[in-house]
Amino acid sequence: MINNSNSKSKEKALLIGVIHGELDEQIVEDHLDELRLLAITAGAEVVGNITQKLSRINPSFFIGTGKAEQIISQAKELGVSLIIFDDELSPAQLKNFINLAKDVKVIDRGALILDIFRQHAQTKEAQTQVELAQLEYMLPRLSKAWSHLERQMGGIGTRAGAGETQIEVDRRLIRTRISKLKRDLIKIEKERETQSKRRGNVFKVALVGYTNAGKSTLMNAISGANVFVEDKLFATLDTTIRSVELNTSHKILLSDTVGFVRKLPHHLVATFKSTLKEVVDADLILLVLDASSTQVVEHYNTIVEVLKELGAERHQTVVIMNKIDEENAAKQLNFLKRKFPEGIYLSALNNLRINKLTQKIVDVMDKDFQTIDLLFSYKEAKEMALAQKGVDVLERNYEDDCVRLKVKASRWRINQIQAELNK
What is the tens place of the pLDDT at every residue in 276-286? Predict the structure, then answer.
């Protein structure tokens, strides 16, 4: 396992990007900037980037054979122990690099993200999900990477549980472990469903967005909750849910889920589906973007793709442009407003225009609101008091033998009141 303290040197890493197809040099450089942040989050020291332009992908090394040899040689000269590809390497390509690189580890973006998730998994659910994703990712690469893993004994991309553990077991034992983890996740998912039922029919709002877009900060701004916030990619993996009263008649359940990132490994999306179920079950999705990022449109497209994979692409969505008070955001604000004219532009950190967002949520909820007339005798004071909770009382008329109320509330609250009165 890598040690991030200053007393020990960090694992030096070299990043590799390939210009091909629709990817031009600028796009690849932007992608490598993100890969650099991921590598730093994992605990590496990035010493440089290398790119190659290809007309077609080399099935042996992804990049050209000569370039592969040059990169390995350069890595050894720089004292680099880790080479990270921004693109996914096939098991065969990984095997070839292992044979060529000897003492230099070669991993791809997927392995790096899995490693970060393993470091940040705190709860039993997150740890189970990440271990399952990591084992499924490594299984087809295991036999071909066996001796290399034995030499590595851990480090970025092969952390304990996906490095040391896999050395000691064979494919059959790994498959047995995968089966057990899947059974554990089914139990966890059932527990989550039970918790969800207990929360009833409250209007559900889910925050989704690119990692480090400020979702947790926004959750704190809306709810006043003290949710962990750190300026790092994937600072938290666990879904946080808070009950929030926007006003006397509008109550929501607000959830903050794991952040998305470009090329999120399929195994991670699959295993985190139980955690991301809060998104699928949401009545409203707040899609949070970093307005100061030059890749904000690509980030939006990435999130939309993940929502499609989750089956939540048709949910009602509001685009949130966060961090508008940062200098880079000001430079592209006019462009963003043309691109996302219906978006809400705010700063969660400085509590700027949060009221516009809460009003938007109220407006969305009001579309689902109903108005009904209720009649109570003076003996039904308790029932009348209960019926006025969580609603807007539009009219209250006291007559000789009864009290007439006209109330406005969400459909679920109206149904709840009617069920109570019909007991």
Answer: 777 888 889 99
